[in-house]
Amino acid sequence: MDYLDKIKWDAQGLVPAIAQEQSSGDVLMLAWMNREALQLTVEQGRAVYFSRSRNKLWFKGEESGHVQTVHEIRIDCDADVVLLKVTQNGHTPGLACHTGRHSCFFSVYDNGAWRAADPVLKDPQTIYKS
Q1: Strand 56-59 to strand 68-75: parallel, antiparallel, or no bridges (unpaired)?
Q2: The pairing of beta strand 15-21 with beta strand 82-88
Q3: Burial letters 82-94, b for 16+ CB under 10 A, else e
């Protein structure tokens, strides 16, 4: 697949993928994709990532139900980062973070420390299987 050959995959065969909410422009999360994950994302119209910690494909929302519908896929000028414009499904507002927050980027630098600037919208204990 020609479009997959345009990507500059790292030494592990991965590329960082940023999920951005289409409606608000919020950056929801950063994950990783391998060739198969990007191909499945294109084919299925939903975000599929590669979990480095589990060393396997990760269909976003497979446990939580918080599926990301993909509307547009872009690459940066160096072809070494993928940007997914998505709708975050499964909860209103959409939850992308495993901490039960809208975005994984909820910590803000504040006078020498990091503090949580965004609230937990749903208890993670109720989202994920134990």
Answers
A1: unpaired
A2: parallel
A3: bbbbbebbbbeeb
Partners of 59 in the beta sheet?
Answer: 48
Strands, sheet with 27-33, edge to edge from the N-terminal-most edge strand: 27-33, 15-21, 82-88, 68-75
DSSP letter at 79 equals: S
Distance (Å, whole) CA 102 – CA 28:
7
| Number of structural domains the chain divides into | 1
71-87 confidence digits (pLDDT tens): 999 999 999 999 999 99
Here the CATH number for the domain that contains residue 63 is 3.10.20.810
Model confidence over 109-130: pLDDT tens digits?
999 999 999 999 988 888 766 5
What token pair was written down for 108? 């803000």
15 beta partners: 33
Q: Is 118 strand, coil or helix?
A: coil
> Which domain does 47 fall in, by range?
2-92
CB 104 within 8 A of CB 96: yes
Question: What burial class does residue 9 get, using C-beta atoms within 10 Å of its C-beta: 0-12 exposed, 13-18 middle, 19+ buried?
Answer: middle
